[in-house]
Prior knowledge:
Helices cover 41% and strands 15% of the residues. It has twelve helices and nine strands. Helix 7 links the parallel strand 5 and strand 6. Helix 1 packs across helix 12 and helix 3 runs parallel beside helix 6. The longest helix is centred in the middle third of the chain and has 18 residues. The two termini are 17 Å apart. 35% of the residues are buried.
Amino acid sequence: xxxxxxxxxxxxxxxxxxxxxxxxxxxxxxxxxxxxxxxxxxxxxxxxxxxxxxxxxxxxxxxxxxxxxxxxxxxxxxxxxxxxxxxxxxxxxxxxxxxxxxxxxxxxxxxxxxxxxxxxxxxxxxxxxxxxxxxxxxxxxxxxxxxxxxxxxxxxxxxxxxxxxxxxxxxxxxxxxxxxxxxxxxxxxxxxxxxxxxxxxxxxxxxxxxxxxxxxxxxxxxxxxxxxxxxxxxxxxxxxxxxxxxxxxxxxxxxxxxxxxxxxxxxxxxxxxxxxxxxxxxxxxxxxxxxxxxxxxxxx
Length: 300
């Protein structure tokens, strides 16, 4: 039996859990079933209590205390432990029907998505090539305020592309927190960041770049400001932008988690990526879904 799921990923502070909450609310409003899985062993506060929480298996706080590891090393240990205990995921997810959308809320440590082979192993277990047979896609969130600083924007875009190549599943890339750039970046200008290309480096209107150039002349060559504003740094940015342009894999959608229409638009792209609607049985017009009494999930 087919299942459908979405990995919600991205760097720390990108709004992953906020998006998960908005997505769950939107699904409930539209009487769709969902199953919320928290895979962040450090997460503590949720708008909706997870149906499955990795902290019931292992928590980052316990690992750091007992193993003497830092946050990053502790997180990697947590995921290695999860891979050794995959029944924790298999047993509750296996009975779910194709009517559910499984939402997996991931941690924000970027190394998990770029160069450590832990997440690809987890994806293989979850996806159609593994025992759970989940038609899986990734929603990679990048904070929209990155567009104010071209260097940050291209670095974030590179991390999204790296995750796409590493995980080898359909991706929906999202510029989140659009409400934070309203009034700061013109709509016409913002649209240019939806499809990254090297011409964004040629405009010369990057405020962050201007501030770097202000300290570039006559200063200490080893000073942080000068290192981030010199010719070498600009060549590095251009090389990164050219690499992204050559692969031509990344484009972004806009998300305002407070706007239900915006959340619905992202969901429609996720549904298309996992072919959700193609697998659904036709329903009678009066056939409704009911919310269970405790409000923790949606039952058919």
